[in-house]
Amino acid sequence: MKVVLLAGGLGTRISEETQYRPKPMLEIGGKPILWHIMKEYSFYGFNEFIICAGYKQHMVKEWFADYFLHNSDITFDFTQGRNDMVIHDQHCEPWKVTVVDTGLFTMTGGRIKRIQKYVGEEPFMMTYGDGVCDVNIQELLKFHQSHGKIATLTAVQMEQQKGVLEIDGFNAVKSFREKSSVDSAPINAGYMVLNPAIFNYLEDDKTVFEGKPMEQLAEEGQLMSYLYKGFWQCMDTQREKDILDKLLREGKAPWVKWEM
Fold first, then answer.
1. What is the longest distance spanned by two Cα atoms in the chain?
2. Backbone angles phi, psi at 153, to 5 degrees
3. Is-contact 69 78, C-beta < 8 A?
4. How many Å apart are CA 118 and CA 97, to the nearest integer?
5. For the purposes of burial, counting CB atoms within 10 Å of the CB of 100, is it exposed (0-12), middle (13-18) or buried (19 or more)?
6. 75 occurs within a structural domain
7. What is the SS3 string spanning 28-41?
8. Residue 181 lies in a domain
9. Beta-carbon count within 10 A of 234 CB
10. Of 19, 1, 2, residue with least CA distance to 10
11. Domain for residue 195, yes or no?
């Protein structure tokens, strides 16, 4: 099964970093977050990826073009007046990666629509190129296959940062406590499984996947949620990037299952 990764946005909320490279190529622990996401899927046996690139898409292509070279032990032999290269050992994952330029200003639904010919008539996985999760992807797939609907998304509840107040009719605070995940509504964390019928809901480059298509799926009873209570963290801001970096430095990164 193929995995589609949305990696083409401008990343304006972390512009101090994305002015130089696309957000999915921002590094945590010395590797792009896109690599971390791919390692998650690879851990569960999914090794074929379609990357929906856009903003600075050449940098995504160049990174993968050099990946084999950078992860191999190589002898460069110039002694015969030639540039002979001998590969001794390589340490790459068994990945097949298709990088597609889906346009600079294309919306999320439009990007998925553009890669339809690479997916074909089969179910596929899809997630965003700026968030990591330790969800069991095989269990997610089993859930999707069990209900027979078009789309499944992974829903998480994030712990909120604001305190919760109980206020009486005279504006007096009766109690105060820190807010927790039980106070928040579930949010879409990505990590989706989609049947090929999803392409019928996508019109053109202006289609926002999280807008009309998902609303229509929900109205028709074709959108299911896999409620997950484990770890998920996006990287929209520098603060969130620092959180992920800190977890890696301290050896507490829940999504790094491939090193367990």
1. 90
2. -120, 155
3. no
4. 11
5. buried
6. yes
7. ECCEEHHHHHHHHH
8. no
9. 18
10. 19
11. yes
* Count: domains in the chain: 1
Q: What's the rounded Cα separation, in Å, for the pair 110 and 88?
A: 42
Q: Tokens for 4? A: 């589609």
**Residue 46's domain spans which residues?**
2-157+186-259
Phi/psi at 180 (5° precision): -130, 180
The pLDDT profile of the chain, 260 residues, written as one tens digit per residue, is 999 999 999 888 888 888 889 999 999 999 999 999 999 999 999 999 999 999 999 999 999 999 999 999 999 999 999 999 999 999 999 999 999 999 999 999 999 999 999 999 999 999 999 999 999 999 999 999 999 999 999 999 876 555 555 555 664 444 555 555 555 678 899 999 999 999 999 999 999 999 999 999 999 999 999 999 999 999 999 999 999 999 999 999 999 999 86
* Contact between residue 109 and residue 205 where contact means Cβ atoms under 8 Å apart: no
Place of tokens 């712990």: 159
Name residue 191's amino acid: Y
The residue among 164, 168, 126, 137 whose CA lies nearest residue 45 is: 137
pTM exceeds 0.70 for this model: yes
CATH of the domain at 243: 3.90.550.10
Q: Going by DSSP bridges, is the β-strand pair 96-101/48-53 parallel, antiparallel, or unpaired?
A: parallel
Distance separating alpha carbons of residues 47 and 97, to the nearest angstrom:
8
Whether residue 164 lies inside any domain: the answer is: no
For residues 227 and 59, what is the distance between their CA atoms, to the nearest angstrom? 35
